[in-house]
Amino acid sequence: MALLDRVKEFLSTTSNVSIGQNELKFLSADRLEDGQTGYSVDKQKNSLVTGKPGAWRKEWMVIGTDAMEDPIIVDLRTDDLEVMTAEHGDSDWEPYVIADSLENFKQIVDGLKKLSKDRATLEQLEENPISAAERDKFMAEVEESNPESETGYWFNYVTEE
User: Fold this and answer.
1) Treating both helix axes as pointing N-terminal to C-terminal, what angle do 102-116 and 3-12 enclose, rounded to 10 degrees?
2) What are phi and psi of 135, to 5 degrees?
3) d(CA 152, CA 150)
4) What's the structural domain count of the chain?
5) Distance in angstroms (rounded) separating the CA atoms of residues 26 and 28
6) CA 24, CA 64: separation in Å to the nearest integer?
7) Terminal C-alpha separation, the chain
8) Angstrom distance (rounded) from CA 82 to CA 104
9) Can you give the residue range of the structural domain that contains 49?
10) What is the pTM of this model?
11) What is the four-CA torsion angle of 93, 142, 152, 29, rounded to 10 degrees?
12) How many angstroms separate the CA atoms of 161 and 155, rounded?
């Protein structure tokens, strides 16, 4: 299966997930091209890929955003489709890996969905906080399957602040 087809398959089988104030919002597979606006292309579809350090790279594809509106990015130059994020701002793009593969990212999202049951809103989370045992189990699974990633990113999703 072609890399782009794998991304579209992921998006067609994945839904948004929210725990308290933390959220992952995914593009629909049929709106994937539109979701690149502001990243690889501007509103007129002119390329923002310049090849300069800190610029958006042609291999990066946005598949969604997190609660801070930072992009969730798939790196199309990797066979496993590493998943990254980067702070959204007006300076250089400096993404970091949050899942070693798209498949592992799917497992993380599925784990978050289990934890989000009766915890989707801040009020629900306050009434039904994630226990230390649940958090530790989730994080152990994430860290074990993603040894090359910045797994601390996921700690924020399962820890009250």
Assistant:
1) 10
2) -60, -45
3) 5
4) 1
5) 6
6) 7
7) 41
8) 9
9) 3-158
10) 0.93
11) 30
12) 11
